[in-house]
Specification:
about 150 residues, mainly alpha, 2 domains, about 60% helix, DUF3435
Length: about 150
């Protein structure tokens, strides 16, 4: 690519990499326009407390967490912790069961968590910046023309 830069493309800095390599449509202003979107403090970053309580109170998740705790208590009764349990024999079997229950509970928790968060973010953006984002992703400039960058490359 340095050969391409040196001999074939003098204004490489201003060119879009995808335009050069894949011969796609130029996206010159997309990053500039996206940078103008303000980060809003009220953008959802996690489900609400009510949604979290609903997710955590599911029967299947509680059942798996109780099983995981029972296995951890068995390990403790034998004098082991999760880190110090032997990697062979009975200790390994208990560790495997503990890990399996933990993964299953986490999977059951993450699926509704992610869907709640995704839905909340989509709803937020549809109501706040939806029109502006769609215009920018479709490479339509805003009605008021923004000044081009003042940086000049040699």
């Amino acid at each position: 690519s340095s050969t391409y830069y040196k001999f074939y493309m003098n204004d490489f800095i201003e060119a879009d990499f995808q335009e050069i390599v894949f011969r796609s449509e130029p996206q010159r202003d997309l990053i500039h326009f996206m940078g103008q979107l303000m980060r809003r403090g009220d953008t959802p970053t996690r489900p609400t407390d009510e949604q979290m309580a609903e997710i955590n109170n599911k029967k299947e998740i509680g059942k798996l967490r109780r099983r995981k705790q029972r296995v951890a208590r068995k390990l403790k009764r034998r004098g082991w912790t999760l880190r110090s349990a032997p990697k062979e024999g009975r200790g390994a079997a208990l560790l495997t069961r503990h890990g399996r229950f933990a993964r299953q509970a986490d999977t059951l928790r993450k699926t509704p968590y992610d869907s709640c968060l995704t839905y909340a973010i989509q709803e937020f953006h549809a109501s706040k910046d939806g029109q502006k984002i769609v215009r920018q992703l479709n490479s339509i400039k805003p009605s008021e023309y923004l000044a081009p960058p003042t940086i000049q490359y040699k």
